[in-house]
Amino acid sequence: MTAADAPRTETVPSATPPSPVTAPRVARDVGVVIVAGGSGSRMGGGELKQLRWVAGKPMLLHSLQAFQARADVAMVVCVLPRQYAGDPPPWIFQSDAERLLIGVGGATRAESVANGLEDLPPECQYVLVHDAARPFPSEGMIDRVISEARKGHGAIAALPVSDTLKRVDADGRIAATVPREGLWRAQTPQGFPREMIERAHREGRENGTHASATDDAALCELLGFPVFVVRGSERALKVTDDGDFARAEAAFPLPE
After folding, report:
1. What kind and span of H or E run contains 155?
2. What is the pLDDT of residues 177-230, one digit of tens each?
3. CA angle 35, 40, 45 (to 5 degrees)
4. pLDDT tens for residues 124-140?
5. 27: left (phi over 0), alpha (psi -120 to 50) or beta
6. What does the alpha-carbon distance between residue 144 and residue 180 come to, in Å, rounded to a whole number?
């Protein structure tokens, strides 16, 4: 065989190994205040509803673990009644202890939130306020609230009112039918740039509206801060009495 007859070989360039894919870094700049400082008086018997078990674990632990599952959450402050804050139930540490602080509840809901805000570390530039009585916040609604708060204004999860509303007098007689267009049922979490919510609480104390505020959005509204509604979730039901506990147990696991 001559050199011309020899089979030709081709040099195949070695394959370049693919560059490792680096996941985008998530800013860990969200702080969460879970308000669990109430007495739970509607339950009767002295039992704190936020510490009562529902759907396999204590109600407070459901929401605590839901927020700590997020990469963007830097710290969660659970605000407990004073008698529990110094000696919290041991199950609360079934969580990321490095991202958990225990705050002391105040005489009102607003005071409890303000105490929780003071405990948040500086890196928390956005704040979510959540009621422990809503143990099943969905990931989607949390995403929507945070996304809106990052735009520089307040945001609350809510659902449009679908029932016919009646205004009733002290004797139980219907005084009027209230148009439901534009009416929404507020839920939590509610989210805000930290500077906004801290100012709302500070000025609320100064002008006397702090104690009467039923939620944090109301404090911001009184100062003229814009607060937007994002779609909430039917699973974020508020557990208030024994009937609510039974419904939550029957419906769990809940859809998005």
Report:
1. strand 154-160
2. 999 999 999 999 999 999 999 999 999 999 988 888 889 999 999 999 999 999
3. 155
4. 999 999 999 999 999 99
5. beta
6. 24
User: Would residue 243 be called left, alpha or beta, if left means φ above 0 and alpha means ψ between -120 and 50 degrees?
Assistant: alpha
Architecture of domain 30-251: Alpha-Beta Complex (3.90)
- Whole-number Å distance between alpha carbons of 112 and 37: 6
Crossing angle, helix 139-149 and helix 59-68, to 10 degrees?
60
Residue with tokens 């989607």: 140
Question: CA dist 166 to 169, 171, 175, 178, 180, Å?
Answer: 10, 14, 7, 6, 10
Token pair for 166: 């009646």
- Are 256 and 142 in contact by the 8 Å Cβ rule? The answer is no
- Can you list the residues of the chain whose pLDDT is less than 70? 1-24, 38-47, 252-256
d(CA 226, CA 204): 16
Residues in the chain: 256
